[in-house]
Amino acid sequence: MRDVTKDNITDVFMGYMGQNTDPRLKEVMGSLVRHLHNFAREVNLTHAEWNKGIAFLEQAGEISDAERHEFVLLSDVLGLSSLVDMLHNRPEGTSSSVLGPFHITGSPPLEVGGDMRQDFTTQVLLVEGVVKDPDGNPIPGATLDIWQTAPNGLYSSQDPDQDTYSFHGLQTVGADGRYAFTTVKPVEYTVPSDGPVGDILRACGRHPWRPSHLHFIAEAEGFRPLVTEVFPEDDPYLDQDTVFGVREDLVMRYEHMPAGSFPQTGYALSGQVPDAYLKVAFDLTLVPK
Amino acid sequence: MRDVTKDNITDVFMGYMGQNTDPRLKEVMGSLVRHLHNFAREVNLTHAEWNKGIAFLEQAGEISDAERHEFVLLSDVLGLSSLVDMLHNRPEGTSSSVLGPFHITGSPPLEVGGDMRQDFTTQVLLVEGVVKDPDGNPIPGATLDIWQTAPNGLYSSQDPDQDTYSFHGLQTVGADGRYAFTTVKPVEYTVPSDGPVGDILRACGRHPWRPSHLHFIAEAEGFRPLVTEVFPEDDPYLDQDTVFGVREDLVMRYEHMPAGSFPQTGYALSGQVPDAYLKVAFDLTLVPK
Question: For residue A1, what pLDDT is reported?
Fold first, then answer.
């Protein structure tokens, strides 16, 4: 079009699309570009601001590699990742929450009642619950992929002093749907803020902290996979998670259990926990496909 | 917020901004994120689509370097670059158009009436006009940074067989504001389509072609710099420029001038053009700062 104007450019863009373009692609690209154009018009975006945006994208590309996912982090801190999660959440199941960049595949099997603490000897946390369907029936054979920070606030992939699979485990539940493991309480930590996304956080007067959490991916034949997190209700960052991951049904009370009360049988640590310990009970409800 | 929902997440995002955040940054980020969230809600963006988007950004980052600016190209083919241009256009001056990725600094001086053809011997094109203010007064001392493709469709930076400054020149006009140079007709060419942006064009059923054009940056003390392009009215891609750069006032008639009519004096090529040649007259109107 030789008469492209600031008012018709979105229509011109749509008109450029081929007749055989996949209808969903057309819908997604059309909506994306309409919002992009409306944004530019709304704020009267200047060349200098456009340059800053381009420089930001180039810097994010530069810092990214197989381990560092700056564009995922960008999506996380802008709330897009959480929004996509929530759009596909089903109210009859447990809420999903962000996967985050620290999941790794191939976690070692962890028997029901097993221990994930490895070399760390801070206070024991016992986590247990049932994997069930929306009617409350247990889901035999469901698997839980579990991961969390060590007490030093680092995931194994961030910490040369930890084994690759430190605080990672894959648990398969039995006929009763019950899972259980001992670990230590995860701690709050910051998202990586030494790159361009960190610059955005600082410029917006935001901190990089996330409340502490346990990560789960629950899967079972015939059910939608669930990626979620569990947060302790007393975490100081619960109401200001920098990646917007907290949902009301994922906030749990971590009970303080008295010394001498750890179960005598059924757990890898039975007979080895004389002191007070923490306990959190958290059922996971999966939605059929 | 532990009650982040798909409906309130945009407000939560705004609430995270610090009290001392620069008001313009707050306005731009707020609008950008509101549009981003509205886009995701509007199309009910899936995790698979989100993954494709992240993978696209990572690939664009990977292919980018000091020479290859894939994010600029993305902005160009989505119409954002042209939209930003048009938002800051002033109706009393010549329309601006995209800078594109092929401008280089340090072009050699080109005297008024000088020749840019170098080793290429295709038909001569004579380009001339006046650099003037909105009242029609010439602007003495204005500079024109001029660049274009060679007849092979390549800019010098894309073509190892051309000198660095082949088809680049910097002309300073005299008291009459008049500029003039001889060159060859630029040719239509494709934007780089071997990367992720090319994948988008193909998926949307779009071609990568731009109509042929001459690039100008006109500058003068006390006036807003003008980045623009001039297109021939008979170019087959005029109505479908893949980067949306064509404006009505930038489309010019390239006149066919008969053999023997080339001016006998005043041009570097005077006395050397016995054949028919092309001529385009194009005045550039700059707007005071």
Answer: 59
For residue A120, the model assigns a pLDDT of: 81
How far A182 CA sits from the closest chain B CA (Å)? 26
| Best CA proximity match to B107, nearest among B154, B161, B143 | B143
Number of A to B CB contacts under 8 A, please give it.
231
Strands (E), chain A: 114-115, 124-132, 143-147, 168-172, 178-184, 189-190, 209-210, 214-219, 226-232, 251-252, 255-257, 277-281, 284-285
At a CB cut-off of 8 Å and minimum separation 6, what does A172 contact?
A109, A112, A141, A142, A143, A144
pLDDT at A119 over 80: no
Name residues whose C-beta falls within 8 Å of residue B202's C-beta, 6 or more positions apart in sequence.
B193
The Cα of A148 is separated from the nearest Cα of chain B by a number of Å equal to 20
Place of tokens 């907290």: A246
Q: How many angstroms separate the Cα of A120 from the Cα of each of A200, A275, B257?
A: 35, 15, 87
**pLDDT at position A72 over 70:** yes
How many CB atoms are closer than 10 A to CB B131? 28
B64 contact residues in A (CB cutoff 8 A): 58, 61-62
Q: Cβ of B43 under 8 Å from any chain A Cβ? A: yes
Do residues A98 and A243 touch, judged by C-beta distance below 8 A? yes
What does the block give as tokens for A233? Answer: 């209700």
* Residue A73: predicted pLDDT: 95
Model-level pTM?
Answer: 0.90
Alpha carbon of B33: minimum distance to chain A alpha carbons (Å) = 7
pLDDT, one tens digit per residue, over B18-41 is 999 999 999 999 999 999 999 999
Residue B1 has a pLDDT of 58
Cα A139 to chain centroid distance, Å, stands at 23
- CB-CB neighbors (< 8 A) of A231 in chain B: 2
